[in-house]
Structures
1.
Amino acid sequence: MLTGCALICVWPTAGAQSARLEPLPAPATVKPALAKLGWHLFFEPRLSGDGSRSCASCHLPSRAYGGDSDLSRGYNGTEYFRNAPGLMSVRLKTRLMWDGRLDGADLPTAVRDMVTEAHFMNADGRLIQERIRQIPELLALWRDAFGAQSQPYGPQIFVAIGEFLKTLDGGETMVDRALRGDRTALPSQAREGMALFSGKGQCVRCHSGALGTDGKAYRLGVPENPAIADEPLRMITLLRHHATMGVPNYMAERKDLGSYVVSKQAADRGRFVTPALRGLTHTGPYMHNGLFATLEEVVAFHDQGGGPGSELRPLGLSVRERAALVAFLRAWSAPLQVAVEPPAYDYWSAGVAR
Ligand code: HEC
Ligand code: HEC
């Protein structure tokens, strides 16, 4: 319980007293030819079963690699039931996906799931390795990365895209400069927000480190997005996810169970992994189900102590304090260099066969 909480509150879990924000670490060391191949593949629609979408269809560069709608679209004939997260500095995450079902140290497995799951890209390693073999430009990039005699091979496709993902850092923001000790880096309102973030707002208990996430899951009681119950295609994708993850009696579980599907522990029902806070200006709408359109709504929701079953407590922030927190959150996107362009040539207009 958070009782007797004055200006600075201490979260009653192990290690939390040391929770703090950190500036962006040095860029990842990547193999340039491999990352270049991954960049091309990220924008390549022929990595999906019917050639209709690429990674960039759902992770838009102009949106810090997040989606452009509250709930992500799905592969043709499906719809998804969660918001597509931004991918800035995704290399630093310890857990991946809103429910934390994948290990952050293993980006290729996340890429594989994106390519092969029926509701994302519905392709198959053997199919796409064959396609790459037949596209001269991609085959040339492949051989630059893997050697002159090499042949495209499914698992290495996922490794190449994972290598590209490691390059998505966005550079140093105002917040990074402030965290490195530059007292003039932040305008005064954002500076006030930064103090509230670690003080009265208690945000840093969960939003810590270089990304603003501790990689753990909490229940904030975010209301259901009504589109999931209203649209059968979203509901059956949710039920299929529950079935795939081995949830008992899954046909009766018609709400997003969050991390429960991973641990099967009752306490994890409705818990979602603390999201990273870099690039937020571009990645809205927010929360696992895209329910809040603005950062003002998100901060007000935290301030009121969340929704039913929430693990937050009301904060009693003033209007001014809420605005300062929003200014601080925005400073984490200022400036953010997200414009990684798609590869310059266009296979489609060049008339290369699919
Ligand atoms: C049809 C839309 C769609 C496509 C296409 C898609 N993604 Fe995703 N991606 C999502 C959604 C939605 C999530 C969150 C899923 C969840 O939490 O259940 C996600 C999650 C991720 C994550 C984990 C991010 C995090 O912060 O946990 C990574 C990494 C990722 N995608 C990379 C890719 C790559 C690489 C491709 C192409 C091979 C791709 N995605 C294609 C919608 C898509
Ligand atoms: C108990 C842990 C915890 C604390 C404390 C906390 N948050 Fe969160 N925050 C979360 C979780 C978990 C989510 C995602 C919830 C969901 O989608 O169901 C979230 C979501 C957010 C988002 C939306 C990000 C996105 O990409 O959708 C923002 C912004 C945010 N929090 C800011 C704050 C601020 C500002 C504070 C302090 C006033 C704060 N948080 C305190 C755990 C926490």
2.
Amino acid sequence: MKTVKFFGLFLAALPFLGLAPRPTLAADPPADRGEYVARLGNCVACHSIPGAAPFSGGLKMATPLGAIYTTNITPDLKTGIGTYTFADFDRAMRLGVAKDGHYLYPAMPYPSYAKMNEEDMQALYGFLMKAVPAAEVANKPSEIPSPWNARWPLAIWNFVFANDERYEPEAGRDAAWNRGAYLVEGLGHCGACHTPRGFMFNEKGYGTDDGQFLIGAPLDNWSASNLRQDVNTGLGRWTQEDLTSFLKTGHNKFGTAFGTMTEVINNSTQYMSDADITAMASYLKSLPGGREKDTGSFVYDPATAKALQARDYSATGALTYAQQCVSCHLLDGAGHAPYLPPLAGNPVTVDPSPVSLINIVLNGSQRIVVDGMPDAYKMPQYRVLLSDQEIADAVTFIRSSWGNKSAKITAAAVAEIRKVTDPAGDQINILRMK
Ligand code: HEC
Ligand code: HEC
Ligand code: HEC
């Protein structure tokens, strides 16, 4: 049995835990309308790779048939979209059809962007054509093997799954709610990660009428959590202010952004105006819970902290938690919110899909950068230090302690994610747009 050193660690960590909170002001929204729309749509996160010219494409994206690469959308005449008229651009954005007539894979979230209004589309086109420097970077061919790389079946896909109607304000809802719906369902394409996909990669719902919309989904070995009002696994206990704080700064008293959500905060939501963030929060707060079994709100149970304090490590994973995690997330699982996230009562810890939890413990997380300032704290990676079984046990422990109630995790589930993921790098993932 390993020796337990955590109290020493815990004491050593105290001074740094007491650090004064850093300011949490987020970046101001850009003054240029088109640039702001590009922020709302987070085009840069997919159409750029760190170190290369902004919007010159080249990001590898996994699809069920094989990897594809995002394209160059700078105004370069040879390799970008320099020859696109507004009508060509509008058709690509709403119908997923490129200028030369080929169909785009729905990895480009055109079924969401179709909801954009005319004014925003014009402003976005103006920004990409005039403010973004042209960069000559050739598009990479997809790695989808023949015959599946034929694009004509995407026309049928569009016919069955896509809907190119613009957002229509709902009568009986106020202006803020409608603005929030426009942003969440449309430009923000939140459903591209947070809505489960069917066997044809179609999102199972693109708006409020669909019960599966934003109910949470695994994508790229992260689980984008449930954004509906389910009380434990969703946002049922979050106030509107909790939501605005999370979207603006990546932090609140329930948790901290990690995984693919980091790029959303870093490159998009932090730039949104207060009015737009509030509108999105008010819309999200109106989505009813979708999971029937999620009842009985979280109640903090002091038994876990008492057992750890008494050095009782009989619970599965308790010893690993005590040795590796307690210095930051503490005996009572409360962390030091909003800088070191709590694990007790945090919706992500009880997510029915454990992939996010396994992934963050294996690989750590990339830094949130708000207003140019990288987060002081970072979740370490345990890929080398802990075995699959130890990680499975630690995750099982946090899912079943302090009042959290969620299913056990197996070593096999950890092994699977270990194989297909890499440690989060130390690079700061913040992308220039000009
Ligand atoms: C989730 C990732 C993602 C986001 C976000 C995204 N795109 Fe795309 N986009 C893609 C992919 C992938 C393709 C290429 C699809 C293909 O090759 O079939 C693409 C293709 C395009 C094309 C067609 C270009 C061509 O070469 O024919 C345009 C135009 C475009 N995107 C514009 C935008 C704009 C503007 C935004 C922001 C409002 C945006 N995209 C956001 C993934 C994304
Ligand atoms: C050095 C401090 C530190 C240690 C030790 C640590 N964590 Fe974390 N953990 C963090 C920080 C900071 C985050 C927030 C994500 C980020 O910014 O990297 C986090 C995030 C998490 C999350 C996601 C929760 C959320 O809402 O962001 C889980 C789950 C988690 N840690 C579990 C663990 C487990 C299990 C261990 C032990 C095996 C552990 N952590 C050890 C600092 C730590
Ligand atoms: C590229 C994928 C992706 C996109 C796009 C995305 N998210 Fe997320 N989101 C995630 C992942 C993964 C998590 C889980 C990790 C975490 O809690 O940060 C998450 C977590 C969240 C959480 C925290 C939930 C919780 O229980 O802790 C909120 C709130 C959220 N997203 C809101 C949004 C909104 C609003 C949008 C659209 C503007 C959006 N997300 C777009 C991937 C995404």
